[in-house]
Amino acid sequence: MTRRIALATAVAAVLCGSCANGEASGQDHQRQMREAVDGFFAAANRGKWDEAARFMAPEFKIFTDGASTFDRPTYVALLKADDLKVTDVGLSEIESSVSSDGSLGWIRYKALVKATSNGKPADVRTAETMVLARRPEGWRIVQAHASIAPLEQGRGR
Prior knowledge:
With 157 residues, the chain is α+β, with helices and mostly antiparallel strands. The protein has helices at residues 2-12, 27-45, 49-53, 72-81; strands at 56-64, 68-71, 85-98, 104-117, 120-121, 124-135, 138-150. The protein has a single domain, classed as Nuclear Transport Factor 2, Chain: A (Roll), CATH 3.10.450.50. The protein has four helices and seven strands, in the order H-H-H-E-E-H-E-E-E-E-E.
């Protein structure tokens, strides 16, 4: 399940490049935040987990179903061990926003991820949220939450 969370989070949000809904004064912050998220997921999709970790704040935490919490080093270790291969992703209900002062932002979405793990189907539906903070080095993911529901073989489409 942890591997499904890691992959679903990584793959689903890579398509968030069109998540803008900010006001004119916050459009640059929206774009920069989305670029950071896209950078994280582009690295994750290539399996470059150390590169992906550079987009996470040192205090990064991810919260999952079952009350699991992982810090950045643990999450990166899980991502490195991940053998999931994604075959299809469908996103819906994508929303994002940046605070009026441009220091914080969030992205949330639902996804349907078709994948395999150890050669077996590992399809999931997710509802996910990421919180980002603007730092001197750029936008960094400080917190993520993923609710995951495995799909039965042959169902869910």
